[in-house]
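User: If you would, consider this record:
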Amino acid sequence: MVTQPAPVDPRLRRARGLALSLGIAAVLFAILAALGWRDRATPSDVSGLAALTDEGVRDEVIRRLVADSQGIFDSHPDPDVGRVLQAGLEERPIGSITVTTNSFGMRDREWELPKPAGRVRVVALGDSFVFGNGVADPNGRLGPQLERALREHAATPGLDVEVLSLGVASWNIKNECAYLRRQLTLLEPDLVVHVVVNNDLDDSMGVRGFGAFGRFAPAHRGRADGILTTATPWELGHRGLSLLIAGLDHESSRRYAEASADMIALADAVEARGASYLAVVHWTDAMPIAGEHLARPLGERRVAYVSDWIHDQAEYIVSPADRHWSPAGAELVSRMVFGVVRERGLLKGVELEAWPLAEEAVAKLHEAGRTEAYRAPASAPILTDDDGATRGESARIDLADLDSASAAQIYGGITKDGFVAPFACVMLRNDGARGLRVRGAMLARPELAGTVRVYLDEREVLALPQSRRGAFDETAEIPAELLERTHLSVRFVSDDYGYSGPALDRCAALRLGTIELIP
């Protein structure tokens, strides 16, 4: 059995993370001076880093910095994970709730490593639905409610069972799978319940100063602020989600394939240890797309579904503006998970009692959700707008004249005024087009000396040198192997860029006017 070192003191974890966030000793010195440390220092001791060797001073710096911090996240050295929660938070206000975390950076109690002999350990893995966005009482979340159900309905009284909640808001599937797979031997789960939701193809944002979200993805740091998300239309001034989750084009399909591979790799690794894996797929109105790209490749025995019906029930969501599961919604999902686990025997060696409420939840959520997942993908509501018109039909995007339909075809990396980040992606409908036309302007920035490369799916079709000045109007032929594809991804990839925005906090490679497929 692997022996795990004792958990690091949360105060030291915070010291390390906050010191890195500050980055320079001068900032530390300024804080220390504000605390009155300067009055105790001799001229030769005036160094913020040296002062931190004083345990009392260090603890006070940490206490004040954490108390003044507005965020709850901490960076993680694994770029495939990106971030966890700050360790050792105590009732930190965030939104409408407060958050307390353990020494591992999770909203949960402390865990014992190695796992005590005879204990049954379940891991609830996911993003904000496992974290419990909007749920003030941590016991009202999925993990604690599933634990309670397993304890109360085990055939063996007094079963030693626990459910660990590994959930971080806005994690994606890659973050989740990497974080758990790389510590399976340490956690020793008997069952993994992996909740995946319909923004899990998004780039996962990193952390900037004092725990707030950054506009970059640690897994793709070279792209600067070229973040691709389903929420992009909101940034462009339009309601609704982008079609990144629609599975129509190269970029979307590639992301589904990568997510599927990550889930299969995690499931295989869990099962190789003799444990079980269950993906709980909650893809709302895009369930048919998730069924095709995620559930069926994974295998039906490894999948349970959450019907979109739950979103229409006020008691099961936090609020009309926040459709995370309320405590009542999490309880219903926990019953469904219990029912599926019992029916399939996923907790090996553990006998669970028949429970009518769990059987009802299986029918209401899982069976109804499975029916939704087997609808034809073209009928998914995500592909229609509020007027019933089919989305994803535009062959032309004009940044000066965006509507909600065309904004949904922009996956990210482009601002409302047309500035293009070092990485950006747009999806266009192809109805027999033969060429691509891109119009815009190079930035009046002589210091830029790179090239903006334009790709159609996997093929590079244009190379725009940043040394040229002024407006451009470029066309390229669509490669023969792409002509029959109904939707094409247009990606902009730059190897140089400048700063823009009032705070010089945006990165821009060029300015885009229109992009279109032409006969």
Q: What stands out?
A: The first helix runs from residue 10 to 22. The CA atoms of residues 231 and 241 lie 5 Å apart.
